[in-house]
Protein 1
Amino acid sequence: NTKTKKAREKVGNKESFKMTSVKVAVRCRPYNQREKDLGSKLCIRMEGNSTMLVDEDGGERTFNFDYSYWSHDGFDEDPETGYLTPKPGSNYVDQTKVFQDMGVGVLNNAWEGYNTCLFAYGQTGSGKSYSMVGYGNNKGIVPVACEELFKRVDSSDNKNLKFQVTVSMLEIYNEQVQDLIVKPAARPKGGMKVREHPKLGVFVDGLTKHPVQSYQEIQGKVDEGTSNRTIGATLMNATSSRAHTIITITFKQIAHDEKTGLPLNQKVSDINLVDLAGSERAGSTGATGSRLAEGSNINKSLSTLGRVITALAEKGSGSSKKGGVIPYRDSKLTRILQTALGGNSKTAMIAAVSPSMANYDETLSTLRYADQVKSIKNDAIVNETPQEKLIRELKEENERLKKAVGGGGGIAEGVSPEEKARIEAEYEEEIRANKRMMEEMEKSWEQKLKEKKTAEKEDVSFKTTCHIVNLNQDPFLSGKIHHKFQKGKNLVVGRNNPQGAPNVLIGGLGVTKDHCFLFQNDDGDCFLKPGTDSNARTLVNGQKLEGEHMLENNDRVLFGNHNYFLFVDPEEIGGETPDWEFAMKEVHKDQIAAFQGSEEEIKKKMMEEAEARMKAEAEANEKQIEEERKKIEEMKAKMEADLKAREEQMRKEFETSGGDERGKKKMEEIMAQIKKQQEEQDKMMAEKEEKLKEQKQGMAQMLKEQMVKKEMEVKAQRDLEERLTETIVKIN
């Protein structure tokens, strides 16, 4: 249209607009171990930028994207670095290629002053985190982009241009927004509110932004957020990390006056890195109760995201209905992503898919999502605004709101007292939000850095001190909570109570006020002592704590029903470290043994029945083959007797005729015919015997395949402990 064709280059306070489509890539991961064990069938293939989804019957659906990344096979692992590289002639796409296509654009857009958003979508376990974060030396887009950003900052030689980078991290869990870099105890009940400002757009009120000066500091904040996320999950008796996570890196470029040194204007870019929780069918996960409700809320927000994407795609193609409303407000996720999806942002998406036929439906859903996303168009704007003007506008807006609250206008006459009180409360809340933003803007960068250093007195003494560390069902959340022993002091372990918080705060079923005590004597020996409440449930290495117990390195401790911890003695570290699954199985070994016993009986009976059935089939087939063999032998004997009788008869006739030349010649002709018939009969019998032999071999092969099939059925029972684990977690 006319507006978008008129690209306005920024001059002073002017803005430059750019209409851009969302860039979409699809990436297919390798089989995981479970899929390998079950002999999974491939349902994906890629050619160029096209992704083909293949069903059980060989039918194909073709989707075209900006990039189709084949990372399923065709790679070698460097023995020294562990980096995965393509084999010669393969179409494997490594992390470097993904960054060049997707990450460089994110980095360049941020440097130019555009808001950027990169979000990963796909079912749980499809490989989203590998593309975004990576593993080991196979670094993903996020760490490489951040490292490159700080390299550019360090190499800048413009003395009048200052750079500021801040990071924030939030999660949306069960439709509640929480700041992950804030301790759970300090968070508002019910989560933070999502607001919209005419100048600042959509934002989360009260979300903390932390100054950083390197990627390592960004990673430190992300680790801190993950740790707080784990503590929150522990206190509310939740083991799942299934939540939408958004990391926002704000990159500011502030131009200063060369003579006075005062800030003139600022160019701001918000880099949003979004990891969407996986969306699965409830039936495929076996989720019930609170897990099902959690999944329902995740699927609700993703469903709303789907409707928003559909509406934006229709708008981008010009097929939307006149006056149609984009349903951003139907979920917290879409509200926060409003700018990234259909507003002032350059956006890219990586859709991660599983290669297994077992996940066909989820993969199809992901590809349909991605196919709609590529039709979305955004109006990206360079965010360059005089800082003083923005602060002044916020002050003016606050004055207007104060007058409205104080009766100076703004609230229509005739409004009921209740409605007036509600409106005034909303105005007061907006005033407080504006005030917080002004205070944040007016702080100097040096002041922010000083506050950060004061707040970040990192306690790493646990690396040299005996402590307990948490174990979690999600490996990403294990090892995030540490509680140190203190010589000569009893540390109280228990739930929160009005008389005062314990030294080690835990929650959930089976946890009491003074649950138990941690103690270290002057010799450095560490002990676990039971509390006074007999209902307190504490287990060490699967055994109930009856009295004082001296802890040894790698001892597993269970507080209540689900709080698993590992005792660590830094002086004794060595050997394999037990994980959550090991500790859980140890605690529930009797249940597992009983459950396995019943399963073993069923499997044994199944195998016995299968063997008996196959034995009966084999015996019947052997009998049939033996009967066929006897018939062939009888036919062969009869044919040989007939031929011998004919030969004898011809010899007698020849002798009777006197044996003249004519009779001799006739005799030779008849004997040749008999010989030929005998050869043909021998050939026919040999073919029948060969056929019987093939039939016997085929039967043996069929029996072998049936045995293999049964073995596969038994192999499929390996998920027994996983199902039992889920059952135990639900009970807890």
Note: Confidence is low (pLDDT under 50) at residues 1-17, 236-241, 280-292, 728-732.
Protein 2
Amino acid sequence: LDIKSQSIFSTEPIGRYCGKKLNSSSQSEEDIMCDHLNFDNIQTSLQGHSIYKDECMRCFVDQKSEQGVDVCLKCFQGGCSTGLNHSAKHFEKTSHPIVLNMRQVCIKDESTEAAEKKNKITKVAIGKPGGIDFEEDRWECWTVLKCLACNIELDKTAVAELVDSLVIAQSAFLQSGVDEWEMEIKPCPHTKGLVQMPGDHISAKGLASCKDCSLSSNLWLCMTCGNLGCGRKNYDGSGGNNHGVDHNKATGHPLACKMGTITPEGKASIHCYACDEEVIDEVLADHLHHFGIDVARQVKTEKTIAEMELQFNLNLTLSKAVEKGRILVPQFGPGLTGIRNLGNSCYMNSVVQSLYDIQTFKDNYSDKGLDHLNTCPKNPADCHVCQFAKIAHGLYSGAYSAKKERTLPVPEGEDPANAETEIYQDGITPRSFKTLMGKGHPEFSRSTQQDAYEYLQHLFSILKKAEKTAGLPDSTRLFQYDLETKLQCQKCQGVRYSKSDASGLLVFTKDPGNGQDDKEEGMETDEEATKEEKKEEKKDEVEDFEKLPPIDFWECLKPYTDEETVTYQCPTCKEETTFSKIMKFKSFPEYLIICTQRFTFTDWVPKKLSNPLNIPEDNIDFSTLKAAESKEGEILLPEEELAAAKEPEVNPEFLTQLEATGFPTLACKHALVNTGNSSAEDAMNWLMQHIEDPMLTQPLAKQGGAPADDVSAESIAMVCSMGFEEKVARIALKNTDGNVERAVDYLFSHDPSELLAEADAEAKPTGEKFVSEGAPIYEIKSFITHLGKSVGSGHYVCHIKRGDEWVYFNDDKVATSSDPPYRGAYVYFLRKKGSKY
């Protein structure tokens, strides 16, 4: 909306009246005249501008804070007016004096009816009416127009329309659905294509019992044949006797209906074993009528899976910090600040907490980072270093981890008087960080759950470029190491050494045996369960993994200790010969990151391995993985002729099995090569983890060949033919794996000045390579755990060692951990013993 004015291009003052000086309590102070409120210092319209009004651009003070946020009316950047006073610093740097202070004030409805409504949960949802964390309170935005040059409050009348527009404008970081979620249950192919067999009519609910035992509650009806089986047996002995699950395993019938949840409206809890999730049967009444059940006469007597999942999440994920069934003592203060979940952002939160525990990050982004924030000429929302520095201040300052109290909501049907009081902290809300780090990325730009390890590697690529451009020490050097591959021809004994950089170690875990419990998605307990049994529902999933057969850690490292035999075209023998191949560590990093690939396939269905990994907590010695020095008298294979080496061999039997699943042949070959042709199952695991990796469409690199240039001259010429400079074309191609089409898209979606700066930084000499000293003996410094049974969903938490204590970070909940479940981790951060970093 444009400001109504006699001349919008006028530089004459719009208003000159001020009641009193800011922060002054004097009622008799003489009015101060201000000439800064003119169209040189404010925008006439919001059109075409990004509005950063929710919080300070350089810290996490937001509109709900006591002082609110000053929004610059020239560039619409928000700044705090207390503490670090980024609003004043922005004025010093830009000479933009006119700001609108915006503060959210809570208008509470204190009526009994409103209080009861607020404290009840009626649906499986977050941030929506009837769900968890939905604010029934009404918030009003209070505004004050200020001139920072004169330090006075101004009359808003002349710019009323601009102020009103700014109040209702959508923030640049406000994305639909980011802060809210609702469980959506859908039909599946098995409900739509259900074929029912002839079966006996089911007895009345009060007379029905399990076919294989006498249990008459928690009964599951097979929708195919009408078998009645009791529910899953819990680890504590409660629940059923597993006869419903046993029936599914014996027959393969996919759908089961929980009898006690059938309602007269034709709804019920339906579990699909094949899809491993709760589903909807759109013609449930007809399917139940097949077995003589009239839904109109049914009365719901038991909780659905969704209702139990809601209770479980309310007590675990959205309330207290729980670990192995124990409620942990919350922690507050500097370095103990949580990160709020922005909607499936737990993967980001866990990675960020682990990285910012490292001393080098503190050095780079605390004092140095604050200096950069105050001097950087770019919009902080577009500067990676600014965002890393903003996170550092948020986590280290303690300003957002003050101890607070609030009353928790209760599920519908329970007395609001029984609501518990929770001790909590605000934590930080890194919307701008998540937006910028995910910009242009096909996965991390979305509000869906992502892989924590892949996000960590993504941040490494950003950090390396951003820090080099800003002249900061390279944080990623602490994680980098060299792997050496030795190939030796078994006929002529010629050898070839090749070296590759790495910043993380992928280890593939193998199922050590059964012990996995194919259980339903919910915790099936009787409605009449005792209070002690109900407490068991709140247990964290990581407790159960200790009862499963362990995975041998050193067995997982065999690809780095054992020789394998491969076939190549030997350039000396001039024929195809057998080679021995072994890969070892040429150097070791200060921090060794290990990602355990905890996924396997059963009948080509992806399953998560929750078995414990028997990794030591301390004194983990990798000396046996160190590459030996080259032997005197070794004959090196000629480099210039190795380019004739052929494409890597793949096991034809495994390749056929993979192709039968529908994956392209090239993707299957990549998977087999990357898993050492160990098995079709391992290759399928690898494929599922890299299903959207663009490299799957690229030709296989010829093994044994001399190293090639990072991008081809032909690709550079093609990009340059579209009018781009060679140095930015090279950068774009390097960042898109040499794909010309993706490189052009990359160039159009990134700021040209940023690309030029990156190209100039790339051309700078890198200096001597960082060399980590000391023996390769490590300790676990932190670890990230994936909770949940599903491959494509779940929840990430992390544990960090601080001195002799472990601290548990679960989004915005922070607590001390008495027994960290490090044997069930997905990603490990191992620190070299005695490291100063």
Note: The mean pLDDT is 79.
Protein 3
Amino acid sequence: MALTLAQFSPSGELLLGTADGRLRTYDSGTGRLRAVLGENKESAASTSTSGLANGHLTERHTCLAWAQGTRKEKKKKGASPLAIVGTAAGDVKAYNTQLGELVWRASNCIEGGVTSLAYSSKDGLIYATGADCRICALDVQSGAVQSSFKASKHPISCIALSPDSERIFGGSSSLALWDSSSQERVSKFTGHPTPVRAIAFAPDGSHAASVGTGERSLALWPTTNAPPPTASPSATTTSSGKKAKRGGLRAAVSSLPCPDPLVTLDACSSGSSAGGSNPSDFHLAGVSEAGDAYVWHCASVPSTSGRQAGEGEASVEGHLVAHIRVDAVKGSQSSAQGEGQPSEAIMAVQLQPGTEGPVLLIARGTSAKPAFHSIPLSQQHIQQQRQRAGGDGSSAAEIVLQAATGGVLLDSTVVGKGANGTGASEHTKSSKAGKLQHSKQDVTVLGPENQGAPVVVMGQVAAGQKRRAEGTEDEAPVPLGERGAEQEEIEDEGGIEEEGVPLGERVAALEAQAEGRPSGGDGDGEPEDAPGPSGSSKADSVAVLLTQALRSNDRVLLERCLATSSSRVIHNTVARIVPRDAALFLRAAVDRLLSRPARAGQLAPWLRALLHHHTGYLMAAPGAQAPLAALYQAIDGRVALYQQLLRLYGRLGLITAHSKKAGAAGDGEAGAAGPEPEVVFEDASDDDDEPDAEDPFALE
């Protein structure tokens, strides 16, 4: 079961929780939402820098802590505490829980992520640690780094500060105790087989309890500054399975069994305001991974055998006092499956001193609607719970909290002390068919944090235009709000009926409207997706369709958007999409260009507009480098042949020109049947002046 990261304030009046990246504070007395920390300003800043639509999801919170306000706020009566938050990016943030604003932010103070926080009211410092094996001290007023020292050779998973703020106890699988002023290690302990998940100091600071990840036991360690004992070769095995070695390793003084692995721990003195108990006795409470709460009573006894504690150190004996869980709702999915898991889980617990003994404050439910309970842990009350459950005097008391069945807006439970004295919520049922009754006090009032963007319905306008098209002009169209019919007709230029029309038909109608052809696409004998002349399409509608196609990976819708040929619409559409969608569009366009180079004429205007409007983001985005390189190689491969083809074209043109010239010269002389003789002899004498020769054989 995924648990919500939550923690009570030192006074128990507020609960700080985060489950989806949002930080919320709730009033434990009324159960109502007090504030959403940094929702407006910080989310907008995170959105602008990361390019994501939801800025609250850009950071993952890893640990929480509470601190007192600044010096100016301390002087004010009833000043709200500060909420300290650590992130996986290594930042530490402080919020004003009354105004819900970010007070300061220490960026990258812990490299690799913050894993644990601790507050020192004595020095006004926030101690942060994490993956860089260092402990960093931050000023609670400004967030400035006051000091930093390397505390271990391995990443530290959890730390806790002693009640007097003089010692720091923590580590990973191996534990150590440091002096906060000198920043030197005082003692070293055997530790756990797995990294420590939670640590809690006893109220007097003599012992500290720790639990490892996945372990079903708690280990109690001596945290006094006494010299560590020297372990003998025959030292017994500690609760973690390790043997105390020579050289100053201190072993656990006690080990308490736990049915389930724990994720949080808290401690409180067992004494009451009236006195009458040992001041060194204390209670331990924790939340398990299954969403149940467990309470132990621990008492310090002098060590006589020395089996687990060192010489001069007091041992601790403890036993399980109570087990608190949330009952499964009848008819729910979990109860129907028979798995025995509750529909709700306990998020956080806190032990507080009471008049008759400690009181356990519990927060259960979800971060959207938590419920709070107060359970007394006096001996008389625990004995009553044991008798009611049918157990003996030595067994743990079983306390069952009734789960809410009214949902988030209407709560069917009454927060407070129930009739059985357990503090559990009691269902209020009516006498008719067992239905739940709700009063005016049960209604949750919606505040500004529940406000969303307004939704405009265009179905009424489309219906009015349809009636006018059918000839019923005498009937006035149904107005949308207080606007007139003429204004509605001007705003709805497309005239597309959207009520009850599938998305595919609306997209086809928008495409036909943009290309200036009929909406049907079948009347002129052309296919529906045939490219037509570019019309006066709207860039905002194409941008919406393009964004939807990219985020849903709809290839058909993307091809319809790419069919737009108007350069103005293309530039305006690309300018409207966010940078993250621009990177997705670049990859999709380049893939289509590489698979079908013949589409270069269609994709070139889109790619040109994309590089024109989003060059800065594409150059910095790591995921856009591969498509840009592929696009450059494809263009370079085509351009490389351009010079060679140009030279070949010139030579072919020269040869063609010479051939045409030679052919024209040969066709100019008509009647040239063969080659002419080189020498022609002509007689210069006149044949008419010479007399004809007489023929001697001629007859007279």
Note: The chain is about 25% helix and 25% strand.
Protein 4
Amino acid sequence: DELASEPRVRQLLTPSDGAANHVLHLQKGEVEAGSAEAAALASGRGLDRALEAQKKAWATEFRGAIDPFVYKKGEEGEAEDWPLIQNVTLAGPWHVLRSGACLVDLPGVRDANVVRNKVAQRRLTACSGIWVVAPIMRAVDDRTAKELLGEQFKRRLLMDGLMDNVSFVCTQTDELEVSDIWKDHHKEAATKPGRAERMRELHERMGRAAAAQVKLEHEEIDKAESVRALERAAKAAKKEAREAKKQAQEAVKAWEQKVAAGGPAVTLRAVADADGRVSVRVGADECAALRAEEERTKNEYYDANDLHQKKRKEHATWKRHVHDKEKVQHEAECTSLKAQLRPLCAVLRNEFASRRLQSDFRAGLEELLRAPDEEEQGASSSATPAAVAAPAIRPEDYQMRVHCVSATDFLKVARIKTQSDGKSATFESEEETGIPELRVAVHETTAQRRERAARDALRETAYLVDEIEVHLGSAGGLSATASAQCQAGFDAQLAELRSRCEASCSDLAWALRREVDVGLVPKFNQGVERGQRQALATVESWGSGDKRSKGDRAGGGLAWATYLATTQRDGSYSSPKVGDIDWNAELAEPVEQSIMVGWEQTMNAKTNELLRACRDKLQADAKEATVRLRAALAQQELPAEAVAKAAQTAAKSLELAVGRQMEGLQDYTTTRQRDINRGLQPQILERMKAAYAAARDAPGGKGRFERMQEKMKGGAEVGMKDMFKELTDKMLADIFEFIEALKERVAAVCEAAYKLLNDIFSACWTREDAAAESADTREDVRRARDEAIGGLAPLRQALHKRMVESGIEPMELD
């Protein structure tokens, strides 16, 4: 209620007109479309000083405008907007986006915030590629890649067919210690000719410079200590002189007072010297001796002080003219050598990190694909060793892509950050930071789709021109009988093509059902068996004394407070102490472990393989149909050239149309199978909700934790009765329903092909009597057609040239 009364909250959460949410549009900067400034900004090159300054000003203003929605406000304790923001979409003239990429920055899939975690999981299903980003220090020091995203998430990637699209991005590569990297990885430096020798030379020179600097500092310490010793001696001499002066003054004063009081002027006093000799001093002679001692100690102090001041000045002169200069020289040499070593060490560590991450990630995959042992299968398992053999990673030489980057150094080298932020720490060029290479990886990914789309658009345009020429070149004027005979011949060949295409659709559906029966149904049965056998043990483990810890589920046990918090959240909770908890995923785990490999092989690899085979068969049948149609129509009263042109155009257009539509069906199958394989956990949640509620509502007081566990076990026994069998049966039903839907979609592709075939060939026998009322009119139409065909010639030649340049070979009919 308090939040609802906040004006800012109401403003942000009130939907905009015609939208499901409140939408804010922020924009900075404007240029005229198609202008030189727009082209320069889009390309990222050719910016003059004025446009560069304008771009930076726009960027600064834009960052300031979006900060409250993506970061935080300046004042401490001020109400923040960003927790209420669902998503932020940024668009601008950034180099990395030039090729059409869309980068989605997601929270971690194990984020402590449940909402952000679910957002990440949902968004990932729509991504064509996944980057896992972590500092390189963590990537090297921890087994990060092997534990990448958790086993459950890796299973999801495998079943979704996305495992090949995972890349690792190591950041902060500019942060390093040269000596540590050389000590740890000097042997690996020899993998490139001359690198180890160069690094060793620089390291040894840096060591000598550092040793000279240490020697210089030791010499300075010795000299400073010598000066301090002279200073202490001068202070001691000064103290002794002061004491002698004081004694002499006291003796003279005492003698004068005694004489003034009428005492004897002459006195005897035995005085023992330092050697133990005793002498007798009389009257004023004693005062004279003390004064002489005072003079001696004063002269000794003067001598000691003069020596101290002399040595102090000599030391200061040496320090200023020798020490400081040599120190600057040594430091400059060390800095220069370190600057030469740092990028070499960074590259060396990058190579090590890449190999380590690839090795650990592959080890994680092999562990994920490992066949279950006898204990995991259970004594009652009907699986044979051949049935559970671990599949090999495909391809055998697969390695995860790793990119090592330094964003900070890139921003400084590229002068995006101001000079007040200091110089780059390690790298001197943009290429060394790894950011340009990461851009290239983005462009290569998008280039595959862009190139295919561009080639298809080029072919489609060329074939459209061919179709127009077919229609323009129609002879017309056929008699009704001849036109009907042509249509009848076409219909006969089309019926033959329809029969073949229907057979291809049926064959595809039959082959898919067979693959499911052979490759998936046994895995589902095995999963049901394992899931049912392990389910209650899994439920009981949640309250066991063998506690889990962050990153290690171990026995699965939870403290009662964490147990309660998990029941309150329907089995899904991100605990600050033990990390991510998902009981529904743990219950689904035995089933998913059993089916994941068969699922990937059947629903991803085999389905796509069968679709490609079906596409090839449909294209071959369509091409053969055009050949038969050409032969059949050649027997009619039609110009051979027009029939040949129509056949050639139809063959090319059908190949392109069928190919593109069948590729679209691959996207459909990917999306549909992901929807099906994600249905298991939500259905388990529905079955377990009653058990979670019963445990949550267990009576309080002493022994509550035990009562919670009893309620959970009792509710689970009811909820999970035949659960896995029913849920997997539903998944199989969904799969067979998907196969039928796929068959219908392929049939729709065939129907579109039939229509295209008819549109092209029918132009050869279409009658024009109704359109042309007189011979003169028909002559005008023919003249206009000839002019139009002549006008199309330059366009067709240009298209043909581009197709040759793009490597598109022209189709030739037999």
Note: The radius of gyration is 44 Å.
